[in-house]
Design goal:
Blueprint: H1 6-17, E1 22-28, E2 32-39, E3 43-50, H2 55-68, E4 76-80, E5 83-87, H3 95-99, H4 103-117, E6 129-130, H5 131-134, H6 136-140, H7 151-166, E7 172-174, E8 183-184, E9 191-192, E10 198-200, H8 217-220, H9 223-237, H10 241-261, H11 267-282
Parallel strand pairs: 6-10
Antiparallel strand pairs: 1-2, 2-3, 3-5, 4-5, 7-10, 8-9
Helix pairs in contact: 4-9, 7-10, 9-10, 10-11
Length: 283
């Protein structure tokens, strides 16, 4: 293993540990390297090798995935250190249904997945990040970094977030980043991937849905789609509609704060946030 990169070393060890016979690079993200692997040319799986950047968050998410035991999410077969051995999913993202004009169908599928993820389990859940900690970036942001014309939106959304945290509900394990393109089709149905591993209000679980799918800004910013999504999710999950919309608005503002901190545009969030706040006020 001399002169190998960290990823190559971890891959070599994983190939031996899990008796793998072939590996194919699939993707490299800011936090991991991902490989498609084979066992004797028959069984396919995925290897996710974590980078130091974001490894804590990724480990927390993979621990939650293991706790899900394959119900509503991809199955974690095993892990060792910063290498995760898991189910291979090569299906299409749920975002394709939404972008293809079947947004109600996609929203119903999301509700079904959330039902599976939120089902109580006998095993204790792993250590997770409190939702309040996740929102610290919203509360710490200097309003002056927001465009002048959007500062009232930031203030209103922050006020909604404060009100939600002041009126706590049940605290349960949350995927924390559930949206259309983090859900893939498989022979077991739609399955979630890449959780953040949070602990908090179950209504927050669907907040990210309202500013997605990727490349679907016109859908997410349509007041009629916002209302339809809120109706479907509230009815099928039994969660208060106003609270769902409140978290959706608060999350849109949080997402904008992350984008501003990274020097990125917030046009997508700003296209949705006024309509989310209006829907929340009217709920």
């Amino acid at each position: 293993m001399m002169n190998q990169s960290p990823a190559e070393t971890a891959l070599s060890r994983a190939m031996i540990r899990w008796s793998l016979t072939r590996s194919t690079p699939v993707a490299e993200t800011a936090t991991s390297w991902i490989f498609k692997v084979e066992q004797n040319g028959r069984n396919f799986a995925a290897l996710k090798i974590l980078k130091p950047l974001g490894a804590v968050d990724e480990r927390r998410g993979s621990a939650l995935m293991a706790w899900y035991s394959g119900e509503g999410a991809a199955t974690i077969f095993d892990s060792h250190g910063d290498t995760i051995f898991m189910e291979w999913l090569d299906g299409v993202p749920l975002g394709d249904a939404s972008r293809g004009g079947r947004d109600d169908e996609a929203t119903i599928a999301i509700a079904s997945i959330v039902t599976g993820l939120h089902r109580s389990r006998p095993e204790p859940y792993p250590e997770l990040m409190p939702l309040r900690d996740r929102f610290q970036a919203l509360f710490d942001t200097d309003m002056r970094v927001w465009p002048h014309t959007a500062r009232d939106l930031y203030a209103r959304a922050t006020g909604v977030a404060i009100k939600l945290f002041d009126r706590p509900t049940a605290m349960i394990p949350l995927h924390g980043d559930l949206h259309h393109d983090n859900i893939l089709s498989s022979d077991r149905g739609w399955l979630a991937i890449d959780p953040k591993g949070l602990l908090g209000d179950p209504c927050y679980e669907v907040a990210n849905v309202f500013i997605n799918p990727e490349r679907g800004q016109a859908i997410a910013a349509d007041p009629r789609r916002i209302a339809a999504r809120a109706d479907i999710l509230s009815q099928r999950l039994g969660y208060p509609r106003k609270r769902i919309l409140g978290w959706a608005a608060a999350h849109a503002a949080l997402s904008a704060c992350w984008s501003l901190a990274d020097g990125n545009s917030i046009l997508a969030q700003m296209a949705c946030l006024p309509h989310l706040l209006s829907a929340y006020d009217q709920a």
